[in-house]
Inverse folding.
């Protein structure tokens, strides 16, 4: 997926007037096909690895095959989602008028109710399968894809319903951009910072902690054992998490670096449209799509099987609401600030989304630390207090998406009043001429 683009200029007859090659569309086609093949190759790799694991005696009981099949299904779905932007770009290159509307935004309330019913059934299916590991390989790929993607569809509908869509091609391109290019940039930046931080902290600890090299060797042996057994040794991890330095580094990365990088890069598709004529409603929709694409690939990249799957699915649903709300607010305030020439709005929105993201990640980190520090309660999952806080944060972001949508719909209706009035006057005058 390449630079987001605008709808084609059209003549009075409705046909595209520019017959020159539209390079953004051409690059979208090339990039989309490349992304499709990357996802398809990844899907094939996971599929054949899963088959190899499945045919190995005793491997099914460890759910390794089910996990690999789930990643194969997720990669295939992501590859398919690249194609709407490619198809619309091809139509643009062939000078054909684009189609209008986005499927998820056009869903009826009845369809949304059925979507929520299916989501609840998926969660219940995950609970049932947690006690029947031999069936993981068969059902969990479907449950993983549905359980982690249905919240994205619902939240987009909640934020986009009844809003005008100015360019379907642009919207699909931004969506594709958000789960291909943006996550790649984010991962590269975060890895560079992590490696740099590891080097600096290691050099510092060599002088502060005398036995630091021996601890590194012990940690390396622990990770090698974990790789062989596919499980982290809880006692060693709990001991590691007793260190204030380790907790501080985790909080710095998860609640400091990650929110800053992700909230800067997630709405990259909106930043690239700075020179286009956008309305605040456009900025909201584009930001919503940016968060949706990023949340989707993050969800499908964090799959699970067995005990704890339902809790993970619910947690990923909350993170999806956070990502979509934050990016949508940034997109909305960015366009509004450009129109009003008052940049303090987008600056405050940017800082606010970083703070909200930092609080969410900080709660998750402390919940994980508390769980590992009390091994006797580890099987019970995260402490209830942290779950309540995350639940309140999720509820708040969902409510925020709904309220902003209502506000933007009302504004769009007011903006359309002159056009509606003009059409009414024209209709009345036409009837008078007919009667005369």
């Amino acid at each position: 997926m390449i630079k987001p683009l605008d709808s084609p200029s059209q003549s009075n007859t409705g046909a595209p007037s520019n017959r020159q090659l539209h390079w953004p569309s051409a690059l979208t086609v090339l990039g989309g096909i490349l992304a499709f093949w990357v996802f398809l190759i990844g899907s094939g790799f996971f599929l054949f690895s899963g088959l190899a694991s499945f045919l190995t005696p005793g491997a099914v009981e460890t759910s390794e095959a089910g996990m690999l099949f789930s990643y194969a299904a997720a990669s295939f779905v992501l590859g398919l989602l690249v194609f709407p932007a490619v198809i619309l770009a091809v139509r643009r290159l062939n000078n054909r008028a684009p189609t209008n509307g986005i499927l998820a935004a056009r869903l009826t309330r009845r369809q949304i109710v059925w979507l929520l019913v299916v989501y609840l059934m998926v969660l219940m299916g995950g609970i049932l399968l947690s006690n029947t590991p031999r069936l993981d390989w068969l059902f969990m790929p479907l449950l993983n894809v549905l359980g982690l993607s249905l919240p994205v569809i619902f939240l987009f509908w909640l934020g986009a319903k009844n809003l005008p869509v100015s360019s379907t091609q642009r919207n699909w391109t931004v969506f594709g951009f958000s789960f291909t290019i943006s996550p790649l940039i984010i991962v590269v930046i975060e890895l560079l910072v992590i490696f740099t931080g590891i080097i600096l902290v290691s050099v510092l600890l060599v002088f502060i902690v005398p036995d630091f090299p021996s601890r590194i060797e012990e940690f390396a042996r622990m990770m090698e054992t974990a790789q062989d057994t596919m499980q982290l040794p809880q006692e060693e991890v709990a001991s590691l998490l007793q260190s204030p330095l380790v907790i501080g580094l985790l909080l710095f990365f998860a609640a400091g670096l990650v929110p800053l990088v992700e909230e800067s890069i997630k709405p990259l598709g909106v930043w690239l449209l700075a020179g286009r004529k956008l309305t605040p409603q456009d900025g909201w929709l584009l930001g919503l799509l940016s968060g949706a694409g990023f949340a989707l690939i993050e969800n499908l990249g964090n799959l699970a099987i067995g005990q704890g799957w339902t809790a993970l699915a619910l947690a990923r649903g909350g993170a999806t609401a956070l990502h979509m709300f934050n990016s949508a607010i940034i997109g909305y305030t960015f366009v509004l600030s450009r129109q009003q020439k008052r940049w303090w709005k987008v600056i405050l929105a940017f800082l606010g989304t970083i703070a909200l993201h930092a609080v969410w990640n900080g709660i998750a980190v402390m919940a994980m630390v508390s769980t590992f520090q009390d091994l006797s309660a580890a099987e019970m999952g995260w402490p209830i207090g942290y779950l309540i806080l995350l639940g309140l944060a999720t509820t708040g972001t969902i409510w925020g998406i709904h309220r902003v949508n209502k506000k933007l719909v009302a504004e769009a209706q007011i903006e359309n009043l002159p056009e509606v009035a003009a059409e009414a006057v024209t209709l009345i005058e036409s009837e008078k001429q007919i009667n005369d």
